[in-house]
Design a protein that fits this description.
This protein is mainly alpha-helical and 407 residues long. It is 73% helix and 5% strand. Strands 1-2-3 form a 3-stranded antiparallel beta sheet, with helices on one face.
């Protein structure tokens, strides 16, 4: 058996999983299980930036392969297919040459939405969540159009190979400037909610979810690293929108905003559906998984809204809504034999505190220290509650699964 070909196979499989957006533990487990199936005893380490795989050859010589990982993507269809391939390799154990050919086939077979559909995803995501965060229906359409502007900017900068941090900064700045311009022209009645809806497109939901799941499985360093990435991206988003706010105030003055709209639960559930459908497109989810992810988002938000309606506080409502989303994702992953992350990352999006993040940085720019501290603590509490809820449910499910296997 050619250990070098198997090492190439394992490292390439781990690399493709990582750049597609898989969690650290999934990358390591997939690589380890494939090599164990072929009778090798591997050492695998997937750290931010690298996948490192080592085995001992039949002659006793240690050999190592390392792949440098660049910026991670949001290609969850690829994660599903690569995860399925690792299961197939473990079960069938084809020749290493054939296994490498299968990996190449899987990479080429991953479907990708075309540019028009990706732009539609930006519109649905921004418009749906704009409505969810208090936009009127006309403003929700404007939020969708601002989301389209974000899509054009990020697509252009991606083709120019721009740094994703710069791309996020440019997109948030131009989107917010457009929203304030629409407000000043009297077209948008509440520019802030328009910005919040469009800003959701830039929220690093996959990185945040992966960070939590990495920590659940003991990859603390990777989880902390990804949490830092989330904070950096959020800061850049806030900086871009704050710069646009200052420039708009100097150019034409900031518009007077109308009160935030309140909508009925059916309307909010419809908004969640539209927003989750948009994110399913942006995360390259295909087939029935698109509707299943959106259904999870509706259920999570409905539980959140109903818990609030029963008199519970916002933190409690977030906890129960996130718990339902996490449980639903674990169940669907086992029923359909797909990674949990593919369902979880979309279904929790309606609960992400996008409005809290925006207002936190707004008070900071305006110099309102008391409001900044108050809003910032509340936003951090919501994020921490979501993390605790996901960790609790995932840990209980994992313990139950391990007990069933041992039994």
């Amino acid at each position: 058996m050619n250990e070098y070909l198997l090492l190439d196979l394992a490292a390439d499989l781990g690399y493709e999983l990582a750049v597609s957006g898989a969690e650290t533990y999934r990358v390591e487990d997939s690589v380890r299980h494939v090599l164990l199936a072929y009778g090798l005893e591997p050492e695998v380490a997937a750290i931010p930036g690298y996948v490192i795989v080592s085995v001992v050859s039949e002659t006793g010589e240690p050999i190592t392969r390392m792949r440098r990982i660049g910026f991670h993507g949001n290609n969850l269809d690829a994660v599903e297919r690569l995860n399925g391939l690792s299961r197939r390799l473990c079960a069938e154990k084809p020749d290493p040459e054939q296994a490498l050919a299968l990996l190449t086939q899987v990479k080429r077979a991953v479907p990708r939405y075309g540019f028009p559909l990706r732009i539609l995803g930006h519109f649905l995501g921004a418009g749906g969540f704009g409505l969810l965060f208090g936009c009127s229906l006309p403003d929700a359409v404007l939020a969708g159009l601002c989301g389209v502007a974000v899509g054009f900017v990020t697509e252009l900068l991606d083709r120019l190979k721009a740094n994703p941090i710069f791309s996020t900064l440019a997109a948030s700045f131009l989107m917010a400037l457009l929203a304030y311009g629409l407000g000043a022209a009297g077209i948008a009645s509440n520019a802030d909610t328009v910005i919040i809806g469009a800003m959701m497109i830039l929220v690093p939901g996959l990185v945040f979810t992966n960070a939590l799941r990495d920590m659940i499985y003991g990859d603390i360093n990777s989880g902390i690293n990804k949490c830092v990435q989330v904070l950096l991206i959020a800061s850049v988003m806030a900086l871009g929108s704050a710069a646009a706010r200052n420039l708009a105030g100097r150019l034409w003055g900031l518009p007077v905003t109308a009160p935030v709209m309140g909508h009925s639960l059916p309307v909010l559930c419809l908004a969640s559906f539209c927003g989750c459908m948009g994110f399913s497109i942006l995360f390259n989810i295909h087939g029935p998984g698109t509707l299943l992810c959106a259904l999870g988002g509706i259920m999570a938000y409905a539980v959140y809204a109903l818990t609030l309606g029963l008199g519970a506080g916002n933190i409690t409502a977030v906890f129960y809504g996130t718990a339902l989303s996490a449980l639903y994702s674990e169940i669907m992953a086992r029923v359909r034999k797909y990674p949990t992350i593919c369902y979880l990352v979309v279904s929790i999006i309606p609960l992400v505190p996008g409005a809290g993040l925006y207002h936190t940085m707004r008070w900071a720019v305006d110099g309102s220290l008391d409001r900044f501290v108050s809003q910032g603590l509340n936003t951090a509490a919501v994020a921490g509650t979501m993390a605790a809820s996901i960790i609790l449910v995932s840990s209980l499910v994992r313990m139950h699964t391990d007990r069933k296997r041992k039994g």
